[in-house]
Amino acid sequence: MKFSRSHRGAALTPVGSIVAIGAFDGVHLGHQALLAQLRERAAALRLPSVAVCFEPLPRQYFARGPVLRLTPARERIERIGACGIDHLLALRFNQALAATSAEDFIENVLVDRLQAREVWVGPGFRFGHQRGGDLELLQSLGQRHGYVAREIAALTANGERISSSQIRAELIAGEFDAAERALGRRYTYAGRVVRGQQLGRQLGFPTANLRWPQTSLGFGGIFAVRVDGAGLKRHPGVASLGYRPAVGGKELLLEVHLFEFDGDLYGKRLTIDFIAKQRDEWHFPDLASLVEQIRRDADEALSLLGVNPA
Fold first, then answer.
1. Angle 214-51-176 from CA coordinates, rounded to 5°
2. CA 122/CA 11 separation, integer angstroms
3. Angle at the Cα of 273 (from 224 to 33), degrees rounded to 5?
4. How confident is the model at residue 240 (pLDDT cuts 50, 70, 90)?
5. Which single residue of 7, 21, 106, 151 has CA 20 to 30 Å from 136?
């Protein structure tokens, strides 16, 4: 898959293209089905397929605080590429693009940059400065510029409607199986292990600590997990995600205790698979109460993961 960022410049697809525009947050089963249709349509017309998205997401750019998303930028790019699309145009959503009128967006991006022959958008799609463009404008200017604009029905998989907002709500509620059915995969988070305060080790439960970006999906609590990376494969663990109110923590961290493991993981990249939520974050009156609860959490995680205690 070819990858570009700029909304200006020479034509990326001089022979024409079939284009789908969307957020593609999560690249869930509905997105995958849409991109498969796009790829098949482009192949039938012997034209390149192009997915257009924005980075950051427009709602991130305009928000005053953190905006939750299912997939960080890098993962979203990789997952769109895995769908077999020829080109991904991940437009830099900045002040210049936000100020671009809908008409200029059509001419600069869809016509000049992509030589679009078909443009696919979802229900209620709006674009351009102050959301001034819609399907009607796309279709009207399409007659002038030689492309056809069409609205794609709500995304579905296995007969069920799927949306990124629905999946976010399911994950926040700890409904990981429901989210898996919509995503087509387990929800995972990947990051590098950073040095912490060694508090877990002092309490008898050493942890691998991963920073959790404010823009990543925001759900907190205690979880049974499986871990891959750095020589580990589906290794069982118990994880805490949050600000650690029990010890006055201020940084959002994912702390993972790996059962029956004693090694150095600093700087290593791990992928955490969330299997089940056990409870929310709690505040404890003293460290003894915290340690006792950690032991109970560890026992419950082992049970949820089907692992016999050593």
1. 45
2. 25
3. 135
4. very high
5. 7
Tell me how crowded residue 59 is: count the other CB atoms within 10 A of its CB: 14
* One-letter identity of residue 185: R
State residue 203's pLDDT score. 74
Query: Is a pLDDT exceeding 60 seen at residue 226?
Result: yes
Tell me which CATH homologous superfamily contains domain 187-304: Riboflavin kinase-like (2.40.30.30)
Q: Which residue has the tokens 């409904």?
A: 175
- From the number of C-beta atoms within 10 Å of its C-beta (0-12, 13-18, 19+), residue 61 rates as middle
Write down the pTM of the prediction.
0.86
Arithmetic mean of pLDDT over the chain: 91
Place of tokens 């926040």: 172
Q: 2-161: which CATH topology?
A: Rossmann fold (3.40.50)
Domain edges within the chain: 2-161, 187-304
